[in-house]
Design brief:
With about 375 residues, the protein is an alpha+beta fold. Helix content is about 60%, strand content about 15%.
């Protein structure tokens, strides 16, 4: 019952019930007294209305007043209990719940009784409690992820820094005493600096992902020209790693997509970098295939690395998920590379997935919708 209805009913009960009961009591008492007088005095009932003396009227009024007081007290107690049960009890529950929230305890429930305003308030309070609990859990999870990220970045920055320090000390101590050694030391230092730069870039992008502030600059891109340029650049990097590259582009010459060239290149670089990181065969090989699949352009990047276990495959795009628990220097990383890839592809309106077989290799797939001109009517 709504609170307004409850108050209206309470008003009518307080005002009219005592009056009604008092009237009934009046007639009942008068009837009893009339019978008593008739039996004791032998007065005819037809003449009784004219023969009740002042004493009998006084007794009647006193009895009626007592009945009215009793009825008022009883009605007041009943209505008070009814209102207390419907209003005060839920308010006390809310007061207790507020105190628990103040103390930081969100592991409780607020049961809503009834469909009145107080019940709706309890339901809204319970919804607020659930949302606060979810926010607290999300905050704890974010703090945990940040700790993991800091630990990962610290570990993976320490490795190249240690290497750079060692090679610089070698140069200072004259260990690199030939042009060949000097060239090798400098190239190694340069490679380690690039590793550090990549980690810092990932950290920067991670912070933008968390606040949905990745800067996109979408443009119409010719699929053939764009991927030809990407593969040419990637080929030089893989050649330095002694990894073979095969490239097949089956898209039409005029196929277009809407994408951010820089962020799409980041996707390809992250996938290729991941393949190189887990390459465990001689010779290593990566195949890139571009296919036209109806309304989409599908990109496939295949390697012959160590592969991913089937139990790990559903989680490889999760933030900070790592298939190698050992964290050695060869397979280090922040653990956010593939989660960044997934975020960028999804922001492009695409989809990404993977298949893999241990000791054989992994294939990464992602699709992007083709650009199609809308005919003017």
């Amino acid at each position: 019952m709504k609170l307004r209805t409850r108050l209206v009913v309470s008003f009518f009960l307080i005002v009219f019930v005592p009056i009604l009961l008092a009237v009934l009591a009046f007639f009942a008492i008068r009837l009893v007294q009339m019978k008593t007088i008739t039996q004791s005095d032998g007065i005819d009932i037809g003449l009784l209305a004219y023969s009740i003396d002042y004493t009998h009227l006084k007794v009647l009024l006193e009895d009626m007043a007592l009945c009215i007081v009793f009825i008022l007290i009883l009605t007041g107690l009943t209505i008070t209990a009814w209102i207390y049960r419907g209003i005060v009890t839920p308010i006390r529950k809310l007061e207790d719940a507020t105190q628990k929230i103040k103390e930081g305890n969100l592991d409780f429930t607020v049961d809503a009784e009834g469909n009145d305003e107080i019940g709706e308030l309890c339901q809204n309070f319970e919804s607020m409690r659930k949302r606060l609990k979810e926010s607290a859990e999300e905050k704890l999870e974010a703090e945990k992820e940040n700790r993991v990220l800091i630990s990962n970045i610290s570990h993976d920055l320490k490795t190249p820094i240690t290497a750079i320090k060692g090679y610089v000390e070698g140069i200072m101590d004259g260990v690199a005493d030939t042009p060949e050694k000097m060239d090798r030391y400098i190239r190694t230092i340069y490679s380690k600096v690039n590793d550090m730069d990549r980690l810092i870039n990932e950290l920067t992008l991670y912070s933008k992902i968390d606040t949905n502030r990745i800067p996109y600059n979408f443009n119409k891109i010719n699929v053939l020209d764009y991927f030809n340029d990407c593969v040419e650049e990637i080929g030089l990097e893989l050649e330095a790693e002694h990894i073979g590259l095969s490239y097949y582009n089956y898209a039409a010459d005029d196929s277009l997509i809407i994408a951010d060239p820089e962020q799409l290149k980041r996707v390809i670089d992250n996938i290729i970098g991941n393949s190189v990181k887990y390459m465990d065969k001689e010779p290593g090989r990566i195949n890139i295939r571009i296919k036209d699949v109806g309304d989409f352009i599908q990109v496939e990047i295949e390697d012959n690395g160590k592969g991913v276990a089937q139990k790990d495959l559903p989680y490889i795009f999760d933030r900070f998920y790592r298939t190698d628990a050992s964290r050695n220097s060869a397979t280090g990383g922040s653990g956010i590379g593939l989660s960044i890839v997934k975020k960028i592809i999804e922001d492009h309106g695409g989809k990404i997935w993977a298949t893999s077989k241990e000791s054989t290799g992994t294939v990464m797939y992602f699709v992007l919708r083709k650009y199609q001109e809308v005919p003017n009517e």
